[in-house]
Amino acid sequence: MQAATNTELITFNNWTLRIRASQAEHPRLLILVHGWTGDENSMWVFARGLSPNYWIIAPRAPYLAEPSGFSWRPHQPETFGRPSLEALRPAADGLICLIDEYSASVKVDALQFDMAGFSQGAAMVNLVGMLHPHRVRKMGVLAGFVPSGLEEIIPQKPLAGKNIFVAHGTQDQLVPIDRARASIELLEQAGAQVTYCEDEVGHKVSATCLRAFENYLQD
Fold first, then answer.
1. Hey, which bits of the chain come out as E strands?
2. Structural domains in the chain (count)
3. Host domain of residue 13
C-alpha cells in the first residue's frame, strides 16, 4: 500500500491517530475506520482523491487482533466476521468521545462529521450512524455489513433522510455479496437512501467504486 502523504502520526488521549489537517477556514471532519487486523495507516488508499477541505482522522482500533493488527472488538473465538452491537458498542462510544475531545483541541467543528470504513470498520460506521444519527452526515460503507443486534433500532428509522454510499465486490470471500445486499435492505429499512456500487472484485474497492465514493463525498 502506498504510504500516506501529508499526514502526521500522533498520540491523543491514549489513542494512536494518523491525521491529515486542513487549511480550510471551515474544514469538514472525516473519520476513516480501518478493518480487522488494520491500523491507522490502512485507510489512506481511499483518501488520496479527497478534498483538501477535509480534516481527516484515522484512529487505531483499541483491541489487538490475531495474528496481528487491531480490531474494534475484543477477540471472541468462533465469532469471526460476526461482530455484534454488544461487542462493538464500547469502541463506538469511545470513538465518539475521541472525536469530541480531539476536535475541541484543534478547534474543528464536529457537531456533524462524515465517516468511511472498510469491512469491520464499515460495520462500525453503520453502528455509529444508527446510534448517533444526529452526528453523522455522510457514511461510506466499503466491503462491509450491518452488525447483528440492531433489530430493535432499525424499525425506528434512525437513518431517515441520509444518503449512504455502499461499495462491494461480487467475488468477496470474506463478506459475501449476499450479506452485503442483505445489509443494504437493513439500511433502507432504517430509513436510508443507498447509493450502491458493485463490481467484480474480491474483498476490496474497485477503481470504479473508489471514484464513485469520491464523488459521493463531494458537496
1. 8-12, 15-20, 28-33, 54-59, 63-64, 70-71, 113-118, 136-142, 163-169, 193-199
2. 1
3. 8-217
- Hunting for cell 483538501 — which residue is that? 52
Is-contact 7 18, C-beta < 8 A?
yes
What CATH number is attached to the domain comprising 148?
3.40.50.1820
Give the pLDDT score at 52: 94
pLDDT of residue 79: 57
Buried b (16+ CB within 10 A) or exposed e, 125-134: bbbbbbbbbe
Q: What is the mean pLDDT of each run of 10 residues along the chain (219 residues)?
A: 70 97 96 97 95 97 93 76 85 97 97 97 97 97 96 97 98 96 98 98 97 93
Is the residue at 156 inside a domain? Answer: yes
Domain-embedded: residue 3: no
Cell 464500547 belongs to 90
